[in-house]
Amino acid sequence: MAHHGEQHYNLEQRFDFTAATKKSIMTVLVIGAILLGIGIILAMTGGGHHEEAGEAGGHAFHWYERLYANLWINNVFFTGIALVGVFFFAIQFAAQAGWSTPILRIMLSLGNWLPIAGVLMIATFFIANHDLFHWTHAYLFDKNDPQYDSIIDGKGAFFYWPMEKGSFPIFYIARMIIFFVFWVFFFNKFKQISEQEDQLGGTSHWFKMRSWSAYFLVFFAVSSSISAWDWVMSIDTHWFSTLFGWYVFASWLVSGLSAITLLTIFLKGRGYLEMVNQNHIHDLGKFVFGFSIFWTYLWFSQFLLIYYANIPEESVYFIERLSSDVFGPYIFVNLGLNFFLPFLVLMTRDAKRHGIFLKVVCSILLVGHWVDFFLMVQPGTLGHNGGIGFIEVGMFLVYGSAATLVVLGGLAKKNLVAKNHPMLEESYHHHI
Amino acid sequence: MEKDTHFILGVYDDEDVLLHAVEKVRGTGVKIHEVYSPYPVHGLEHVLGYKRSRLPIAAFLFGMLGTTLALTMQFYMMRFDWPMIIGGKDYAAFPDFIPVSFELTVLLASFGMVAVFMIVSNLKPWAQPRIFDLRSTDDKHVMAIDIANNSAVQVEEIKEILRSSGATEVNNKSFE
Q1: pLDDT of the residue at B124
Q2: A346-372 pLDDT, tens per residue?
Q3: Where do the domains of chain B lie, and which CATH numbers do they carry?
Q4: What is the complex's ipTM, to 2 decimals?
Q5: Do residues A419 and A12 make contact, with C-beta atoms less than 8 angstroms apart?
Q6: Which spans are transmembrane here (chain A) (predicted)?
Q7: By the CB < 8 Å criterion, does B158 face chain A?
Q8: Chain A residue numbers touching B47 (CB-CB < 8 A)
């Protein structure tokens, strides 16, 4: 019910990124770096699978391939979280939502990682190249070569157009650059309009933001799908799934929503955002709960059709994973963490309204969806040389803490609350 | 005096007045039988002190019933009653059962929830609805107070409380 009367919230509040907070995040980063170092040393000296790989593929396995695969998993995963922050921000304006006004800046702050993610993604592609993407080998497109692959040759234009197949993947690189440039452009545009709104007030900025949000959402719809094909699906070059773009998007969305929820609860715990009450937390919880089910729906739709039709060229994707000693168990870990856990824990209203449940579930979901991307990338790049070890955990911690530092650093620079947003008053009275 | 037969009705024009009136009337210790309004008034159930609905529990149980029923049915049919090999899979191929299980879960949860709601809210088809004031289906909010439930307070006193809380009319209503 509406409580009448003046609201005295501090609208000028800014997140104070204290040295202590920075230090604890840096500690995690250092621990991650140490684990990563141990993992690399173990991989360099031990290896163990060298001979097997030599027999199976005719190509020796090098320890740095595992490093590249991990760089790629985390590039894609954390790009997704950053992108979903901007996406969810834009959705609030397109949907003319009022409830989310106090947490708008939190969503937007995730986008601070985007420029760095873009540089890392492009750099990793050029360094890892052949070790990650089978289609980058020139011999696949050479009809006179014994290893000529007519199927990949047929798909070649998607990577190499307008240049000759097997040369420089100009079309692929152009897409990667264009996507990041536009995403960062829209992110900066949103930041700029937010800044103007804070300084000048009035409703005109809201309308401006709504138009830009609409443009961004159209671009996002196309680019998020294509980036999923480019960056993840092209690893298994022969294989394809028509809902893969949606599947990756759903995984990104749940991770991004979890990150937004965790940040909101963290800031509330620090005494910021007094206007955010249980009702706002409840709504975030509903998004996490609902889109976890949406992710499961897509995961299962993809699996069931392939399983049921049992066409070898399609089912190889799941055979590679389910019948593997390395990846088989993680399929069930994936479903357990990303479906059964949020479904059962967040089902009741109380669980969605109390920070502690959401804190636990959202943290686990971030790990769970990392496992999802791990399962998308590693089987096609490393095969039985993959797995979760020191390198995986270390790299995840390094990326995670680096992204957190960047996001919180960006958050601390601006106002925490959109103080002149026309729907701020509405959000105080949000009640569900 | 018999229960559920003689009522005092307070008629209100405005939902804000109504919300404050409910708080005020309950504050004097008078027990409200029910409030009728032409549309859902936000926060009314809160000021009336209603406990949160237990309908989700019914939905969950009916949903579980649906899942169990669907899995048992398919398992029995495909494994025992009429075993069939489809697409080279096992007789009891679990992934095949998921879509039907999902559908039956949703179906039974929603049907069960509607049925429970209808019965609990006395909206069953054979129910004889009691109209306290026909205008509560148009433009008036009506607060009904059961006289038998408030034997400690004088009828005139209740009427005075209603009037002072902003009721535009205070009427008597009796049912057979």
Answers
A1: 81
A2: 999 999 999 999 999 999 999 999 999
A3: 6-50+138-174 (3.30.70), 55-120 (no CATH)
A4: 0.81
A5: yes
A6: 24-44, 71-91, 103-128, 168-187, 214-232, 244-267, 287-309, 329-347, 356-376, 388-411
A7: no
A8: 1
